[in-house]
Design a protein that fits this description.
heterodimer; A: 251 residues; 12 helices; B: 310 residues; Rossmann fold; Alpha-Beta Plaits; 6-stranded mixed sheet; 11 helices; 14 strands; 34% helix; 30% strand
């Protein structure tokens, strides 16, 4: 456990010692703020039946920076260790590989949570100034942020896997960006291809992050996406461990 | 301390090390010698459990490096080639992190880090970013890292590469002082270093052990007896051919230095053809300016043992 915390804190420091963290934090906050302001204008100007939480998290202005944030926060985690050769000092210390994987994963998730923390404030401010609630009920907040957390688990683990595959950060970012983009957009396929079969539409909807967000932002906590994201995270992390141990595969 | 049995490592068809067998006793400082690509780093990486062996086994203090890898790793300090470090950390911060990682208990942490900072003369840079340090300092930070948990065994992969002569001397002194208490396996291709520091030398070439002995014994028993240098005015004689005919001479090279020719004679085992050379020179009336016999050095042993065709 002590080793885990040592690794975890080193990993967090690595985040906050690098300028990437601040650039990502700054622009993420900026975009989230602009998005928030934008949506308020829309809700003010047009008759909508949706709550603030719903408009915000269902808009492309949310999805775009959201998807982009994962490659940026995960790309250096393994690639940098490979490139600098510090993998050798790290793995020859009396540390088990899964401790390294877990510490890195937790540090990334922690940073991801830091990234989202300020947006809580946006809603609180909104409520304070307007006297209106931004969601249907408190549950809608919890559900939305629960889903954000779950998607964060999955997409961060995808980013980490991509980073573990290569020593080049750009390649890692490209791989994870493509995979996450596909995860978000593939579920639109039946719509684009005009497939009307409800069975196929249902299957795609089951995997669709945008569909999940639609439900969760209304306050509907569906157990199926929870299972999906958690199990996919476990799978990605398991694969990351295997890739991380690649050099130990017997020739 | 180290026991290596039939260790073999193949990378995608290339055999990096082939059926290696050696032992290192407690307290020894062993020099691991070999040309680039001989398999030194590979062997060290297997010993530190960074890479798995294809076959054979290695133990450190009785712990199998593959099966009981964490136990084995607790007992060794490793300085990899090129000293990888986290450039974004400060020296003392990095050493504290490494000490924690290596299981130094909290109450001894400050003491341990302080000790290695002193030992490696890093006190004056302890608050600096590692990325801002010169190569020599980084090398010492790497060494301090290897030492911070007070390991029984040190494995150092080319610890003096890239250092200036003063720094090399410091590092050598440091390593020499570690002997006795700790076991050290050190790889290098700087030969005087080995003669100064090591109690024993293992020469490895193309993945195989060519020799394992003290530097003295290697010199005594080696096959090339050294070389001879002759400077003379030889006129139009074909001196190279004449010299080559002398028994005991392996080959001869010639260089011009004004009117004089400078001949380098590589000699065979325990041969001393100085009399024949003198006789030849006086028969031909060569004006001899210098004739010297050079005793074999570890360098000759190294060349002999690792000459590709031998």
């Amino acid at each position: 456990m002590k080793i885990f915390f040592t690794l975890f804190s080193r990993e967090l420091k690595a985040f906050f010692y690098s300028p990437i963290a601040y650039v990502v934090l700054f622009y993420f906050l900026l975009l989230a703020g602009v998005n928030f302001w934008f949506q308020i204008q829309i809700v003010n100007g047009y008759p909508v039946e949706l709550t603030m939480v719903e408009v915000i998290f269902r808009d492309v202005q949310f999805w775009f920076p959201f998807i982009l944030s994962f490659p940026l926060i995960t790309m250096r985690v393994y690639s940098e260790e490979y490139r600098m050769g510090t993998l050798e000092t790290l793995t020859t210390a009396p540390v088990k590989d899964f401790q390294i994987i877990l510490a890195k994963f937790c540090a990334v998730i922690f940073f991801y949570c830091v990234l989202w923390a300020p947006s809580f404030l946006s809603f609180a401010t909104f409520q304070y100034f307007t006297g209106h609630t931004a969601a249907n009920a408190a549950g809608a907040y919890y559900a939305t942020f629960l889903l954000l957390f779950l998607m964060g688990l999955f997409f961060c683990s995808v980013g980490l896997l991509a980073s573990a595959l290569t020593q080049d950060q750009i390649i890692a970012a490209t791989i994870s960006f493509s995979i996450i983009l596909l995860c978000v957009f593939i579920p639109f396929l039946p719509m684009v291809m005009n497939i009307t079969s409800p069975a196929i539409r249902d299957i795609f909807a089951y995997f669709s992050p945008t569909q999940h967000m639609e439900d969760f932002s209304k306050g509907i906590i569906d157990s199926r996406p929870i299972v999906w994201y958690v199990s996919m995270t476990a799978l990605m992390t398991f694969l990351t461990l295997q890739v991380f141990q690649f050099r130990k595969w017997k020739a | 301390m180290i026991k290596v049995e039939n260790l073999t490592k193949r990378y995608a068809g290339v055999t990096a090390i082939n059926n290696l067998n050696f032992e290192v006793e407690k307290g020894e400082i062993v020099g691991f010698l070999g040309p680039n690509g001989a398999g030194k780093s590979t062997t060290m990486r297997i010993l530190t459990s960074y890479l798995p062996a294809s076959s054979g086994r290695a133990t450190i203090a009785g712990f199998d490096v593959f099966e009981q890898s964490v136990e084995a790793r607790k007992r060794l300090g490793y300085l990899p080639e090129n000293t990888p470090l986290y450039m974004d950390m400060r020296v003392n911060e990095y050493l504290r992190y490494r000490a924690n990682l290596k299981g130094v208990p909290g109450r001894k942490l400050k003491q341990s880090v302080g000790d290695v900072l002193e030992l490696c003369s890093l006190r004056d840079v302890e608050h600096k970013l590692i990325g801002a340090l010169s190569k020599g300092y980084r090398q010492r930070v790497g060494l301090a890292d290897a030492l911070v948990h007070d390991p029984d065994l040190l494995i150092l992969d080319e610890p003096t590469i890239g250092l200036d002569p003063n720094q090399i001397r410091q590092v050598r002194e440091l390593i020499k002082n570690l002997g006795g208490k700790r076991t050290v396996l050190i790889s290098t291709h700087i030969l005087p270093e080995v003669e100064i520091m090591c109690s024993r030398v293992i020469v490895i070439h193309k993945g195989k052990i060519r020799a394992s002995d003290t530097a003295e014994n290697l010199l005594k028993n080696q096959r090339t007896a050294g070389s001879m240098r002759l400077e003379a005015k030889v006129g139009s004689d074909n001196a190279v051919a004449d010299l080559q005919r002398i028994p005991g001479v392996k080959d001869v090279t010639e260089e011009q230095d004004g009117d004089y020719s400078v001949f380098q004679l590589r000699l065979e085992a325990n041969a001393d053809p100085s009399e024949e050379v003198m006789r030849l020179a006086s028969n031909r009336n060569w004006a001899v300016r210098e004739i010297t016999r050079r005793r074999p050095t570890l360098e000759d042993v190294f060349v002999e043992l690792t000459h590709s065709d031998s």
